[in-house]
Each structure stands twice: as structure tokens, then as C-alpha cells.
Write a structure and sequence with these properties.
Layout: H1 3-23, E1 85-90, H2 94-110, E2 116-121, H3 125-138, E3 144-147, H4 149-157, H5 165-168, H6 177-182, H7 185-189, E4 192-193, E5 199-200, E6 208-215, H8 216-221, H9 231-245, E7 250-253, H10 258-267, H11 285-299, E8 303-304, H12 312-316, E9 320-326, H13 330-344, E10 351-354, E11 365-368, E12 371-373, H14 379-392, H15 395-405, H16 419-424, H17 426-432, E13 438-439, H18 447-462, H19 467-486
Parallel strand pairs: 1-2, 1-3, 7-8, 7-9, 11-13
Antiparallel strand pairs: 3-12, 4-5, 6-9, 6-10, 6-11
Helix pairs in contact: 2-15, 10-11, 18-19
Length: about 500
């Protein structure tokens, strides 16, 4: 029977399986692990070749220009004014000098060039003229000197003066076009000498003017509202005042000096200087007409000469309703009027100043005064001198100098700083308004001597000499003297 073998084989197989299972090592169940927080992976950029940095030039500030450093180009290139001492020969004295000195000390303390201005009073114009002429010969000259335009001609003829034009117009050290235009034209032109190739031999720090003084209170009492503006009006008023006094006074006090001759010539529309500025023309129609007018006043008893002294006392005492003279006399006129009123126990007369009556559409005012000049020394001292002039003629400093000196400023904008002064000095304000109409007397080398000749001619005419003949002779004499002094 086959069945037992089959059963035996099946049992054997089962036994093998059980033994295999029994021999197998049991394994542990896997432990569930906590997940580990992985740090984020920062991906590095692929390594590439670094770009080459282009270096920018470092921005550096321009060094500030050194104060008062020399110009690097132009006619004054390399001229260094720093630390220079400038001696100034001037003619200011008394209280004017006392008040001037602190102003100059201010310049010394504040100018960035370290320039020292050393003022020295050398007396009057004649004293300074003598000292300058001697200094030109010895070479001992100041950095600055004061004097009139005809003095400039003497010094220039001897080679003793620098031409200020180059300093004034220098692009580095000079005045701007706006600054130059701020000066009254006649004030700048008066120092330019046609006889010396139009050199600018001086510079105007101040000026005075030839004005007419009038008594407003007395005019109104005589029936006139305003001062005269024409010769005809002047004659009517002067003759009315003379008639009121009826003693040979009361009208106009004649002034016989050369500035009066020039002023009346200007008022009648002429000039005593030739058109080219190199000679005299005293015999022109305007001078003839002016002298004829004044001679007529004198003959009619409406004008008279003083025997001595200045005319302001006669004006204050009502011995004259009109006088003419320098604006620098205004303080004396005011004092005289006040004194007379105090002594009489009355209110002071109202008085004023105006242009000399004229035939021209606008007034023409004779403007005069001393200039500052730059003698020939060294380039450094000359430039330092100009720097002081530039400061001294700046508008605000000019205004302060006006209050110290009583002179007029030479720049229009100085009036912006004079409001209070003008408000308390009415007559100064009246005259200030006239500066725009300025004209000037000859700058010729001979004018100092010609002035004496002009005075003599005026007196001859008033005493009856023929006007045309006298003025012809004066013109010829003046031009001969000019030619002689200028030389070949």
C-alpha cells in the first residue's frame, strides 16, 4: 500500500519547516525616531570670476583760496600786497582828523591783507605839494597822497605817479562794472588827464560843490515862493532884496575867484576847458554871457563885493539874500543864522541851497575837491594803496566819512546809508540831489597860476574893462603858460 510513504514524506517536510522557524532569531520592532530638524542649506553661488572694480577718483574739496592771495594772471599777477605799510600824507586836521583816525584803525584791524595804513598830517595843500616835489627827486615818497588835479599833472610830468586805471579795471583787484557805474561820472572823469595820455592820476574819495545859498524866509516876505532857477529870476529877486535894504547891500555877494568864473560859465551852458581837454577857452560865448550878466547886476546895485572875510555873516544878517560858494561852508551858514536869531530873540530864518541859476535845461554844478593819488614806489605798496582806496570809497565807509567830514560822497549808493544824516541836515540833502549834474574845472598843470589870472580878469571886468577883450587876453595867457609848463 502506497499511502504510508506519502504520509511519511509529508511529516518530514513539516518537521524541517518547524526547525527552520525555531532557529530564526526574533527581531526587535523598529523604534519610531523623532524627526531631526535639518538646517537649511544655503546654496552658494557658483564660483565665478569677480568683476574688476573700477576705482573712482576720490572727491577732494578745492582748497579755499588764501585770503588776499596774489592774482595768478593779468597785469598784476604775482604782486603780493600782504603785510604792506602804506603811509598816507593828508591834510585833515582838528576834529575831522580825530574822528578819521578810528575809521582808519578799523581798516587796519579788519582788512584780510594785513595792510597797515599809517596816516600823517602834512599841513595844507601847498605844504604837501612842496614835500611831494622834493620826494620825487629823492625817491622818498608815501604810499598815498592827497592833492588837486593840477597837482597830479605836476607829479606826473616828473614821473612820480602811478596810473590808477589799471588797478580800477583789473579783473581780480579792481571795481566791477556795477561799482564803477555807481560813481558820479564827473567825479571819475576829473582825474583822467588827456594831456597825459588819459592816465587816471587820482581817485575821488569825496567832493564839494559850488552852490547858491538863499534865504527862503526873506524871499517869501518879498513875495517870492521859491528860489530862482534862471538868471532872470535871480536878477528880479536880488534887486528886490537890494531895494528893500536900500543901503547898497541885500542882493548878491559877488565872488571873484576862478571857481566862481567856472561855475557861472557852466550855468550859461559852456566850459572853460577846450573840447579835447588840453587847453583853455575863457573867451567862449558862455563865459562872455555870464560875465555880462554879473556886471549888469553889479552896475544896477543888485550885487556887491565884500571888503573882507567870508559871505556867511552877511547872509545871516540879511545883508545878502544870495551868495555862492562851497558846500563845505554849510555848517557856518547854519551857525550864523542861529546866532542872529538868538541875539534878536526871533525864530531863525529858513535857508537852503540850490543850483546856480542856469540857462540850460538841467543845472550844471561845479564839483571840486582833492583826490588821493598813488605815488610810484613798489608794485606791492602801490597795490596795497589801491586796496585801501577801494575800501575807503565803498558806499558804507563813504557814508561814515561824510558824517565825519561834511563832504559829499562820490558814489550814489552811499545815500542809502545817510537817511538819518540827511533827515537832520536838510541843506545837505538838497545839495546831494544836485551831484548828478556835476562838471569839473581844468586838471591842467597850469591851473594853479591861471586861477590867479582868472580872478584878476573878473575884477577888471567889474571895474569896467571890455569883457571880450579881457577874456581873450586871459585865454591867450593861460594857454601860453600851459604850453611852457608842459615843455617841448
Amino acid at each position: 500500500m502506497k499511502t504510508p510513504k506519502f504520509v511519511l514524506l509529508l511529516a518530514t517536510l513539516l518537521l524541517v519547516v518547524l526547525l527552520a522557524v525555531a532557529c530564526t532569531t526574533p527581531t526587535e520592532e523598529p523604534v519610531a525616531e523623532e524627526p531631526v530638524a535639518e538646517e537649511p542649506v544655503v546654496e552658494e553661488p557658483l564660483a565665478t570670476e569677480e568683476p574688476v572694480a573700477i576705482e573712482e577718483p576720490m572727491a577732494t574739496e578745492e582748497p579755499a583760496p588764501e585770503p588776499c592771495a596774489p592774482a595768478t594772471e593779468g597785469p598784476l599777477a604775482g604782486v603780493d600786497p600782504r603785510g604792506q605799510t602804506v603811509v598816507w600824507w593828508h591834510n585833515h586836521s582838528g576834529s575831522r582828523e580825530e574822528r578819521l583816525l578810528p575809521l582808519l584803525e578799523e581798516f587796519n584791524a579788519t582788512n584780510e591783507c594785513g595792510i597797515t595804513l599809517e596816516p600823517q598830517n602834512q599841513g595844507g595843500y601847498d605844504d604837501i605839494r612842496d614835500k611831494m616835489n622834493a620826494g620825487i627827486q629823492t625817491g622818498e615818497l608815501p604810499g598815498l597822497v592827497v592833492g588837486y588835479q593840477n597837482d597830479q599833472a605836476f607829479y606826473a610830468l616828473a614821473g612820480g605817479l602811478a596810473d590808477i586805471e589799471g588797478y580800477m579795471t583789473d579783473p581780480y583787484w579792481g571795481l566791477t562794472a556795477e561799482d564803477q557805474a555807481d560813481f558820479f561820472p564827473a567825479f571819475l572823469e576829473a582825474s583822467v588827464h588827456p594831456a597825459f595820455d588819459s592816465m587816471r592820476l587820482g581817485f575821488a574819495p569825496n567832493r564839494s560843490a559850488e552852490v547858491m545859498y538863499y534865504n527862503q524866509t526873506w524871499l517869501e516876505e518879498l513875495g517870492f515862493a521859491d528860489p530862482p532857477t534862471t538868471p532872470a529870476e535871480f536878477q528880479d529877486m536880488a534887486c528886490a532884496a537890494a531895494a528893500a535894504n536900500a543901503d547898497g547891500t541885500g542882493g548878491y555877494v559877488l565872488r571873484d575867484d576862478a571857481s566862481a568864473v567856472a561855475a557861472w560859465t557852466f550855468a550859461f551852458g559852456g566850459d572853460i576847458l577846450t573840447e579835447d581837454g588840453t587847453g583853455y577857452v575863457y573867451n567862449g560865448q558862455a563865459t562872455v554871457d555870464a560875465m555880462t550878466f554879473l556886471k549888469g547886476l553889479y552896475d544896477a546895485g543888485c550885487a556887491y563885493f565884500l571888503t573882507e572875510g567870508y559871505p556867511d555873516p552877511a547872509f545871516a544878517a540879511r545883508d545878502a539874500i544870495f551868495t555862492t560858494g562851497s558846500s563845505s561852508g554849510m555848517p557856518f551858514y547854519g551857525e550864523g543864522i542861529a546866532t542872529v536869531a538868538t541875539e534878536a530873540g526871533t525864530e531863525p530864518d529858513v535857508w537852503g541851497v540850490a543850483a546856480i541859476p542856469h540857462t540850460t535845461a538841467d543845472p550844471v554844478i561845479n564839483i571840486y575837491g582833492g583826490d588821493v593819488m598813488i605815488p610810484v614806489t613798489t608794485p606791492e605798496t602801490q597795490l596795497a594803496s589801491w586796496i585801501f582806496i577801494k575800501w575807503f570809497t565803498s558806499p558804507e565807509i563813504q557814508a561814515r566819512w561824510v558824517e565825519i567830514s561834511g563832504y559829499f560822497p562820490t558814489r550814489a549808493s552811499a545815500a542809502d546809508f545817510l537817511g538819518e544824516y540827511v533827515a537832520t541836515n536838510t541843506q545837505f540833502g538838497q545839495a546831494l540831489d544836485l551831484l548828478q549834474y556835476g562838471a569839473f574845472e581844468p586838471q591842467l598843470i597850469s591851473y594853479q597860476s591861471v586861477r590867479d589870472s582868472a580872478t584878476a580878469a573878473f575884477n577888471e571886468i567889474m571895474q569896467g574893462a571890455d569883457i571880450q577883450t579881457t577874456l581873450d587876453a586871459l585865454t591867450e595867457e593861460a594857454n601860453i603858460l600851459q604850453a611852457e609848463l608842459m615843455g617841448p
